[in-house]
Amino acid sequence: MAAAIFTAYASIDRQPALGFLAVVVVGVPLGWWLRSAGNANAEPSRREALAAVMLSWVVLPALGALPYALGHHMSLLNAAFESVSGFTTTGATTITDFSAVAPSLLLWRALTQWVGGVGILVLFLAVFPQLAIAGRQLFNAEVPSPQEERLTPKLRQTAMAVVGLYMALTFVCSIAYYLTGMGPFDAAAHALGTLAAGGFSPNAESFIGYGAATQWVAVIFMFLSGTSFFLVYGTITGRKHNVLRDAEFRVYLAIQLVAGALLAVLLLGENLAPLDAIRHGLFQATSMVVTAGFASLDYQTWSTPAQAVLLALMFVGGSAGSASGGVKVLRWLMVAKITGREVRRALHPRAVMPIRIGGRIIPEDALRAVAAFLTLYIGLFAFTAVVLVFLGADFTAAFSTAIATLGNTGPGLNNFAPIGELDHLPVLGKLVLMFVMCAGRLEVVTVFVIFTPGWWQLPRRRPRA
Predict the structure, then answer these.
(1) Residue 302 φ/ψ, nearest 5 degrees
(2) For the whole model, what pTM was predicted?
């Protein structure tokens, strides 16, 4: 916030400063009131914990919309859409002319997705460590994983470790961008979006206008943004001596290498030099898998097979415990294991066949949870695509935009391509996509659970023993 205000006053156009001031005037008293309204001697119930997560993802985007509405004179709907897109790290935009947007607002866009990447949940745990056991309930909403693996014994220390690693990687990324030719402002803004797997760029063409070295830097840090922060932290601290032993990481790496190679082969038919085809192939494969949504080329001009590969990659997602959105590689790995088990059961129907990942047996309830998640995910994707078709989008645009917003990738194809925008969508379309972006960021199930009667019957908070 301070950086955005400073940029606003340092530039010629100081109008955005009013929007940032409004965030401070409204947000600070609201934050203090929410903190004072809590009871440090009581453990939040599951219902209250989930409600806090949901409320955070309503209040925070609402506050984040003020600078757009007051500083750029956006409509309230477009301002809310831009804010939701930022905090959910989706990267879809309603801005049509980036040259007319003040630098401070462009920095604000980058900051919103950076905060969204680390998660409002992790920040909340760092400020309110007294949540204790209930903190794990909250933690599952933002960093979901079928197996809980915490960096440190205490949840507060876990949050601090994640934030510290996130900040360090962002700083290193910005320096690397600067050293490879970006200006200081662009380097900072792109670094904020890269580590968040967000996709917001301070210009309309993403990475298209930058050199090969800068694009390779983006590939490296996008890859890290989609890698489990637990694995990265463990590698840095020496707890993990061989990352290739991690089953999810092996699959995550293999998907990007295979998809990048396939795209490179397809791009050779686009009259690109072999080294350029490899670079752009790996860039777009990594960008789509980790749901960053950055572009090194306008893939709207690519062949149909190449675009089909990009669409398939939008369904993947990064690693569990990373900044990326999407289904997540670990869930797909579990689906593959379940499928293989059912095929073997056709031959041995009475055999006991536990599913193992990384040497651990995955509980059956975790497998059922994955099935429920995918059912809701695919259902919401289909619903969104149908709504967009009824609102006038062609099938390709509707299909790609539905999965891009649900997976928090951002841009789709046709009218919603990497250098396109969503300003022309009708009101209903924007409202639906805002809901879908939030649902995707909160792992779908977290959002739908509040619509079930049983959620309202969960016990209230109880005194801490």
Answers:
(1) -75, 165
(2) 0.87
